[in-house]
């Protein structure tokens, strides 16, 4: 299950950028060619977040379809199944343009409530 190692990478990135603050939500983009099972990734993410500043955080996954450009005929192709081939000519010489991503796009952090800077007596 490679979802566990992918979840570990996501947790490490989010933890580093959160810098000790609590995380409510992690948004990521996962390419179709990564062959990730979203429910398995979410399970692994929740498991790894236990006891960290990410505990209880929601993992939002945007799946990115595989897209490529045919080197033979030049057409842009959305590829949904293997083998990856051009929809136009059926050629297999396709340069991948999207679908290999694994990106943490955004973090939603909890605001820390403090009394510093509040003017009393107004």
Please explain how this structure is put together.
Strand 3 and strand 4 form a beta hairpin. Helix 1 crosses helix 2. The radius of gyration is 20 Å and the shape is elongated. Helices cover 23% and strands 31% of the residues. A three-stranded mixed β-sheet has the order 2-1-6, with helices on one face. A three-stranded antiparallel β-sheet has the order 4-3-5, with no helix packed on it. It has 122 residues and is α+β, with helices and mostly antiparallel strands. It contains two helices and six strands; from the N terminus they run αβαβββββ. It has a domain of 75 residues: hypothetical protein PF0899 fold (2-Layer Sandwich), CATH 3.30.2320.50.
Question: What descriptive keywords fit this protein?
Answer:
alpha+beta, hypothetical protein PF0899 fold, 3-stranded mixed beta sheet, 3-stranded antiparallel beta sheet, 23% helix, elongated, disordered C terminus
């Amino acid at each position: 299950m490679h979802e566990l190692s992918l979840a570990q990478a996501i947790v490490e990135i989010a933890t580093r950028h959160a810098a000790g603050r609590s995380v409510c939500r992690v948004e990521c983009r996962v390419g179709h060619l990564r062959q990730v099972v979203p429910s398995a990734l979410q399970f692994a993410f929740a498991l790894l977040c236990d006891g960290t500043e990410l505990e209880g955080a929601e993992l939002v996954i945007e799946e990115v379809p595989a897209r490529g450009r045919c080197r033979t005929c030049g057409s842009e192709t959305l590829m949904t199944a293997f083998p990856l081939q051009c929809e136009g000519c059926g050629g297999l010489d396709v340069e991948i343009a999207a679908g290999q991503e694994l990106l943490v796009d955004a973090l939603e952090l909890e605001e820390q409530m403090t009394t510093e800077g509040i003017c009393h007596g107004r």
